[in-house]
Amino acid sequence: MFILKRQDVEITTIDHPKRDQQVPILNYQGQTFRLISVFNTSQEEEAKSLWRDLTDNKGKACVLLEEPGRFSIWGKIRLDQLGSDTGSDSNISIFIQASILLLQAVYMDIEDFLGSRQAALFEKEIVETLQKWQFPQVSSPEGVKYLLEVEPLTTGVLNWQEDHVITLLQNLHRLGKAYFGNTNFAHSVADKLQDMPEGERSLFISWLNQSPLSKLWH
């Protein structure tokens, strides 16, 4: 739809109508957009590819924003839809649980195949990633250790939004590819989520296939 620069738009935050958290909102010419995905400057082509896919192939009204240090993609939304948009409320806890299970699976594979030293480096990079994107509750070494060790199906819900799940899985794919040298670890997602109830696993995979992550995790 549009490629814009930071000075072209106004970005504000509003209170989520159903959760105790703030949601970033982009305003452009009287239209409002919600954050979908974030890329660093070295991922410009990936950002443009996803933006084109969403606009041309999936028919979504999206903005690609060129910011200092990153590119971000925003999807058009009416503010009165905020409390009911896909995955934002009743399903978000399921998506969070699944993303933690995938994080733990990659971590365990690194430890098993590459050794404890590489696993420790991976853990450190996850800390840096969560700090960079300001993840609530877990952007510390202790928070990441909690994520890697917790039983996600019985833990309390983290105060994340859908874009946190997307950002985590984008960066988890990037790191996994760097450590393993290929993307085989991102295949057979359903097999890695066998501990989840079948209905919840199917719901997550359905969301995954319609999300910006569909080409990364499958």
Helix and strand topology:
Elements lengths: L1 E4 L4 E6 L6 E7 L2 E10 L3 H14 L4 E6 L2 E7 L15 H23 L1 H17 L8 H9 L12 H19 L8 H4 L5 H13 L8
Parallel strand pairs: 1-5
Antiparallel strand pairs: 2-3, 3-4, 4-6, 5-6
Helix pairs in contact: 2-3, 2-5, 3-4, 3-5
* Nearest-integer average pLDDT: 85
> Number of DSSP strands?
6
Give the DSSP E fraction (strand runs of 2 or more residues).
15-25%
| Count of individual helical segments | 7
Principal-axes shape call: globular
What portion of residues is helical? 40-55%
Widest sheet, order of strands: 1-5-6-4-3-2
Descriptive overview:
The chain has 218 residues and is an alpha+beta fold. It is 45% helix and 18% strand. It folds into two domains: 2-81, Phosphorylase Kinase, domain 1, CATH 3.30.200; 92-210, no CATH class. It has helices at 44-57, 92-114, 116-132, 141-149, 162-180, 189-192, 198-210; strands at residues 2-5, 10-15, 22-28, 31-40, 62-67, 70-76. A hairpin with a 2-residue loop joins strand 3 (22-28) and strand 4 (31-40). The relative contact order is 0.13. Mean pLDDT is 85; it is low at 85-89.
What's a quick, concise take on this entry?
This protein is an alpha+beta fold. Helix content is 45%, strand content 18%.
